[in-house]
């Protein structure tokens, strides 16, 4: 019997209990609890890790297990993602610092807008596609989780280009 594969950021020694290496697939609600707990309990070391770069946004992987990947991302004012889906993975994010704006869409649904302030969390299933950006004048940072891990995202020119069924 082999131990579950796990890769952890060296600055965060308390992560193993939170990312539960024995767990395979995580549900959106569980991913949301994970990013919410990590952002709350590890705020000080995460803020110490943060970097801000341009033009390319900065990010670092916090953990990778067989079931989940966990990331810390930073957003200077004006920085944004392209519209994208998560390749069939479920996901979540929690705002660690500042605030981010999100345009999102479920297949065949309208494009909706949401603002996420410090401490806010969402979890989502494979059907949700979105674009995230920092529209504020302050720096922002977010903690993201995806399950299954290592699934490539797919980018679109516009959220209205997203197919009715996400393969
Ligand atoms: Fe995303």
List the main descriptive attributes of the protein structure presented here.
167 residues, alpha+beta, Jelly Rolls, six-stranded antiparallel beta sheet, three-stranded antiparallel beta sheet, 3 helices, 16% helix, binds fe (ii) ion
State the order of secondary-structure elements, H for helix, E for strand. Answer: EHHHEEEEEEEEEE
What is the number of strand segments?
11
What fraction of the residues are assigned to beta strands by DSSP? 35-45%
Shape: globular
- Estimated helix fraction: 10-25%
For the record, what CATH class applies? Mainly Beta
For the record, give the distance between the C-alpha atoms at the N and C termini, rounded to a whole number.
Answer: 33 Å
Might you state the CATH topology name? Jelly Rolls
Number of domains: 1
Largest sheet: 6 strands, antiparallel
GO molecular function, one term: oxidoreductase activity, acting on single donors with incorporation of molecular oxygen, incorporation of two atoms of oxygen
Keywords: Dioxygenase, Iron, Metal-binding, Oxidoreductase
Protein name: Cysteine dioxygenase type I
InterPro entries: CDO_1 (IPR010300), RmlC-like_jellyroll (IPR014710), RmlC_Cupin_sf (IPR011051)
